[in-house]
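Extended Data, panel c. Modelled sequence:
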Amino acid sequence: MTVFEKLTELPELTGVVAEQVSEDMASIARGEELDLPWRRLCVLIDYELVEIVTPALLGGSLRGSRTSLGWSEKGAQFMCG
């Protein structure tokens, strides 16, 4: 392991942090990511639990496209495993 890898190594998700991450991942699954605070979203991105998906095509009164979040493979393993 290089010095850079040691500096960028993240601590394991446990306790209250893991519970908050689970709640935030569930919010994303429900499509409620717009209410997610930036600091908590950064945790999900840092741990590679979510992916930014663009564009997400919408219909009806929300016609068009927008950026959305989705679970990464690692995020699905965290939630299901």
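Residues 14-80 form one domain. This feature is highlighted in the accompanying rendering.
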